[in-house]
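Q: Sequence in, structure out?
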Amino acid sequence: MAKEFKIQIPQSIVRNPEINSKSFVLLAKLIQQYYKQRVDERNLTFTIKYYKKLMNFTDISDRRTFSDCLKVLNEKGLIESIIKPLPKNGELTVTLSSEVIPEFNKGQVFTQFEYWVLNMSVIEEVGHIGVRIMYYIMSWINYKKLGKDHCYASVIRMSKDLGIAEKTFISYTKRLEKLKFIKIVKFDSYTTVKDDKNGNENLSYDRWNNHYFIQQENIRKFNGLVEN
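A: Exactly. Output:
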């Protein structure tokens, strides 16, 4: 199978609770737009000829929400220019921060995912939060290292990093699991009996965090992609 284009996002952004999920997905799409430029003509400042198409592909239905997402990205220094109000002629010029482009940040950790995890059909099915969660899980994974093929952070930690409620996180992971986009290996809590130095028995309560695996092949199949 040919090597597929991956959209890479700094790990610090993937785990930033101050960036909401819609703004996160929009940033990912803008990074994708950057790489659509010819290699010899790539520039951090580029023009999207018809930004309503971008809104559609990002599953953002109204201009106000789209404008709010741009504002968030600007306030966090990820977009160096902001247009207010949005132009009416359909064109939108954006200047990305070099911080979000891997070539300019060789020492920074980036989380990468194949482009199809950001296809419109996936976003519509799992929502912006669902896409963000998949990126977050991937940010813990390193397939080159043994035993690092999954995320084992706690629900408390993950929901805090994402800036969402624990119930929201659990609800979306259940949706992702039902679609088989992720696999969750659950662990039950248990108690053990340990003796202290005086021989007295003490109960110890232990619980392992669930393990979260990304099932990339199922996401590929959902997008109608098959191996050649």
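DSSP finds eight helices and eight strands in the chain.
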